[in-house]
Amino acid sequence: NVGTTAGQRRLGAAARSQEHAMNDSAAGRPDAGLSTFQAFTGLSLDEQNILDQADRFGQKELLPLASRMDDEEWWPTEIFPKIGDTGYFGITAPSEYGGSEMNMVASGLVLEGFSRYNHALGLAWVAHENLCLHNILRNANDDLKKKFLPDMIKGRIIGALGLTEPGAGSDALGSMSTTARREGDHYILNGRKIYITNGPIADVLLVYAKTDKSRGAKGISAFLVEKDFPGF
């Protein structure tokens, strides 16, 4: 387990304690406690501990799933809740939502540790954690954060991002044809998206659509679309 305090994930807390202890025992040495690998990569003891923990989790929990996922296009439904329970979702999110209150460096280290053993799940993780969850954290209003973030951080619902279209790939924003038209207190979206990581299994998708074609890329908005919405 990554570590919990009063029910809140504290990713890296053990590493910080270890770092202080090693520094105290070897005061005056700028490289005290650093392995040759750490000195080469520039990772702190805290960061190295995060990577090591993610590496161990990946080897134990994700590697055994890799072959079947690749060979059968199979999705292990139990893995996201297990990742959530261990504290590997919501890396950058505040503790009020159940997050770890860390930075994007920590998020990247977790991705590195996971992808070393299961590249498919590494990609699914980053689509959920960074493209959807972190995007909601940064840009959504408080009501949407409260609705989606706790369950996403626990791995109870899966997120994805819908941007690429059949005719809009490398120029996804400029060539986008999906539109959103306001009707009363909601929007009607019309369009197609392809190559959506987590698309077949996602419960909520952050979908980009044009609300004002005359403004080009600046006339694009993001919408949270749930899998049971009519017409989806």
UniProtKB/TrEMBL annotation:
A GO MF label: acyl-CoA dehydrogenase activity
InterPro entries listed in its UniProt record: Acyl-CoA_DH_CS, Acyl-CoA_Oxase/DH_mid-dom, Acyl-CoA_Oxase/DH_mid-dom_sf, AcylCoA_DH/ox_N, AcylCoA_DH/ox_N_sf, AcylCoA_DH/oxidase_NM_dom_sf
Coiled coil: none
Residues covered by region (Disordered): 1-30
Chain ranges of the Acyl-CoA dehydrogenase/oxidase N-terminal domain: 46-155
Pfam families for this protein: Acyl-CoA_dh_M, Acyl-CoA_dh_N
Cofactor(s) for this UniProt protein: FAD
Keywords for the protein's UniProt record, in alphabetical order: FAD, Flavoprotein
Domain Acyl-CoA oxidase/dehydrogenase middle: 160-232
Homology family: Belongs to the acyl-CoA dehydrogenase family.
PANTHER family: ACYL-COA DEHYDROGENASE, ISOVALERYL-COA DEHYDROGENASE, MITOCHONDRIAL-RELATED
Protein name: Acyl-CoA dehydrogenase/oxidase N-terminal domain-containing protein
Biological source species: Nymphaea colorata
Lineage: Eukaryota, Viridiplantae, Streptophyta, Embryophyta, Tracheophyta
